[in-house]
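New to this. Explain the following:
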Amino acid sequence: MSDEMNRYDNPLIHRYASARMSALWSPQRKFSTWRRLWVALAEAEAELGLPISPEQIAELRAHVDDIDFAAADRYERRLRHDVMAHVHAYGDACPTARPIIHLGATSCYVTDNTDLLLLREGLQLVLHGLAAVLDRLALFARKHRDLACLAFTHLQPAQPTTIGKRACLWAYDFVLDVAEIEHRLASLAALGSKGTTGTQASFLELFHGDHAKVRQLEETICRKLGFASSFPVTGQTYPRKIDAQVLAALSGIAQSAHKMATDLRILQHRKEVEEPFEAEQIGSSAMPYKRNPMRSERICSLARFVMSLESSPAMTAATQWFERTLDDSANRRLVLPQAFLAIDAVLILCRNVTDGLVVYPNVIARNLQAELPFMASENILMAAVAAGGDRQDLHERIRRHSQAAAAVVKQLGRENDLLDRLAADPAFAAVDLRAALDPAKFVGRAPEQVDEFLAQVVQPILAKYPAEAAVDEVRV
């Protein structure tokens, strides 16, 4: 047995998330970004007159990605400080530049600016994942825009809707998530070069009290990182409130996905709509006939995990004493990557499920017809009054016939025979009862709402974030 089989393997990486999202949170990406930040710092300091040579900067640039992780590990075991371990490992690779690596900076210069860069790219990946789900939901909604189905309030039969309109309800939740992610991206800034307590004292010392140069240093670093600005005031770290806000946005996506997947599980129970099921897929090891909604169940499972993570950064933000404490570090190492990996997996599953939904119109029609006579009773009442009947007498007749029909359904397990009872009652002889049960008469503007929503709300989003042709594999 290999050593790998004797170690815990995070299923978010092994089974669920995409290679892109896994790579984003990898050690290589993290520590290469640290080195890019050290390069940016050295470049900015040289541009502002500090004695850092072009040769030193070129040496730093040449060794951004070739990290000796074993050396860094040895240093960390001895020094008990991860940032200084990587300073020394970088210095070994860049002996000429070694004296100026990390000049004037504190650890959070690399750790926090890196996290902000990873958060930014992670949110961009999430946006494209959301767009892919919206693309599939839009296709599904458009195809079934006018397929009438039974709607539910309180999980009890209610006035009909259409399959397409219901899909738009799912889609609109994701639309709101897009807006929230875009807002979070627009609000992100760099930590910049704030120093040990956020006062920039070390940089003011480096530049001999020249405040303008200290401000210019931070502006230059932000520009090199691709940020328009830095947070205006901080302690040693960027505000941990940012993590809480980002996790709240990811939790919002999880809530949307959980709601949709739960609806699909109920619909599959009703045999109206099913998630995709592969030719050789096994639903149950004991019951060969089973077609379990396991992808939707997995969406719910992973979504719950993301929602549960939301509390950690909130508590971290609430307990950062004064300019910072280190009790945030281990928690953030776990929560931030895993929240992104899990929501990435959720969106992959949502795209897969919505891309292959199977609709059973005959079952949908049968289930609707079982309840439609009751729902049509008001229309029938109005038609009978228009034909000359007494409204109060007709109301009482429909009430008695409805209760008798309900008893047949509930007590005897038979089909709803309300229509037959009304047809046999002379008071309704002038009413076209079959025409009164046309499902299209009960869905209101649902088909038109689908058209308007897709054109006015969804399409502008898809234009900004075109769906990618490549599809991530789903391990079922």
Remarks:
- The two ends are 25 Å apart (CA to CA).
- The longest strand covers residues 156-162.
